[in-house]
Amino acid sequence: MAKTKKLKFKAEVNKLLDILVHSLYSNREIFLRELISNASDALDKLRFETTRGTEVVNADLPLEISISVDDKAKQIVIKDTGIGMTEEEIVSNLGTIAKSGTEAFLQMMTKNGKAEEKDKQDASAIIGKFGVGFYSVFMAAEKVVVTSKSFQKDSPAVRWTSDGLGSFELDILEEDIKRGTSIEISLREDAAEFASKDRISEAIKKHSNFVTFPINVEGDKVNTVTALWREPKFKIKQEQYDEFYKFISHDYQEPMDTIHVSVDAPVQFNALVFIPKQVFDMFGTLREDRGLDLYVNGVLIQHKNKDLIPEYLAFCKGLVESPDVPLNVSRETLQENLVIQKISSALVKQILNHLSKKAEKEKEKYEAFWKEHGKIFKFGYSDYANKDKFAELLRFNSSANENADQLTSLNEYVERMKEEQKEIYYLTGASREAIESDPHLEIFKRKKLEALYLYEPVDEFALSGLSKFKDFELKPVEQADLAKLDSFKEEEKEGEEKAEELSKGDEKIFEKLLKRIKDILGDRVTEVRESKRLHDSASCLVNPDGSMTSHMHKMMQMMNKEMTPPQKVMEINKNHKLTRNLLKIYKNDPRDAFIDNAAEQLYESALLLEGYLTDPHKLVNRINKVLEQSSEWHPSSK
Ligand code: ADP
Ligand code: MG
Fold first, then answer.
1. Which of 159, 299, 371, 532 is deepest in the core (most CB within 10 A)?
2. How does pLDDT run across 609-625, given as a tens digit for each residue?
3. 255 and 201, same domain (yes or no)
């Protein structure tokens, strides 16, 4: 008899097991779903190997899952005739967790990394989605014995035994067994209810009804084994779709939307695509991990095929079946497969159409979609083929909205546009408040021109990527051609004092003052000029015409990890009280040091507003000086 090896679980497995043992379970039965889904995966893999002609052990075994129950011994055994595991495979599959983001997942499950009583979380709600399903068996088991025989020739059967406490034992079996895996579960006292044929059948009907292989409990088939996506739509009830979605996604909620399509040309395919109610992307890997399952004639060719769905629709779950994909194609060549590309582009059109209809007919529901999935969806600006449709589906907050929660579409913006307006304006900032106090917006407010408020970096990429919507150019307010805005009448506030016009002579002096300010700031600015956009503020910085916006610039810099302010144009508000006073000071003595200080302060204040100021010391010293000086004027200090 070969010697038993004792092996330790990897640290992350121990942490997970610790959590599972101590967790709350609102829905403990999902451990059955996880084990059955693994069995089903193993059968899918075997079927795939057979169809591409690989020689497998026990080729004539039926592909199925059998479950037996012993209510006296409080045991269940789940057996499949799938691909099985070799010794090496079993050690790595059932001893480690090879998932990215494991650490983050464990942190999230337990607030401080330890599964302490007081901050218990419900493990059953989340474990399946993360895909460490096998270990969920320890929510119900005190001991588990996995016996497996690989489909590959000459690989001995192997047995894995564990109580989920730190280690597992491994034996190589001398006797030969049939291909596949059996999982023998000795139930915990508090999970004894599962040693019942009825209890198990009920759980299977609920969670595993759509497994495409027969599941027999004590000899009776419990699941329906139908390929729902091939059924005619009118025959399917929403509950069936919901159940199917929960089955493939391991989600506990119903889907937000169900999209069932059958296409005949240019390629033939059936697809069943779901939009979840909530994105599950806690590690930010969703776009990379996206995919739809690909079936050919009932055989699962690939789980999560990325090429079927673009990144910006990564939240979609589901599957595609097409007889036009060659069966024996390898996964590498699948990527370049033209059929896949055609399916994908037809499917994307269907999904976008679905969303358009929703946006049109169910505004509130569409906004709920946007709030949940918009962050990812926005990346679709690079889908050139669907540019127009995509643009209509975008939503933004806008100056025409009353608060930061409301949304506006580009179409709505266009409807509200002034007759002569040729451009759609937008401005990026950290919040509605920040944007509304941005000096660049002053002229837009006064002329009652709508501006879209952008809060996320991708928003600006999306709009500058699209560059146009219908006949209208999409423009950051900072880059608007102000001469074109002249024709729009300015709102005048009641009781507002209008600044006096400057005399011809003073205009000349103002020009000189601007030159003097440019000399003070030197190369830090490309130009100092009179502002046409400011009303309330004394100065602001703008980009030399046509160059990128500050926000965009900052993003580029963040990528390159440097933060030098870009050379900009400084604009001065001629009518501002400060400017008028500077003019007087200049007239009296063009070299007055107050002008130097004022120029520096105006420049640094503007930098501060744009988020570029990295050394606040000088600025603070200067302000303190000014405060000190002005305090001398305070009546009480006289
Ligand atoms: P996942 O299914 O998301 O990969 P699991 O924790 O459920 O994660 O399973 C881990 C791995 O163990 C699987 O990927 C598979 O390789 C292997 N495995 C589990 N159950 C079986 C089985 N019944 N037959 C063959 N391999 C299995
Ligand atoms: Mg699994």
1. 159
2. 877 777 889 889 999 98
3. no
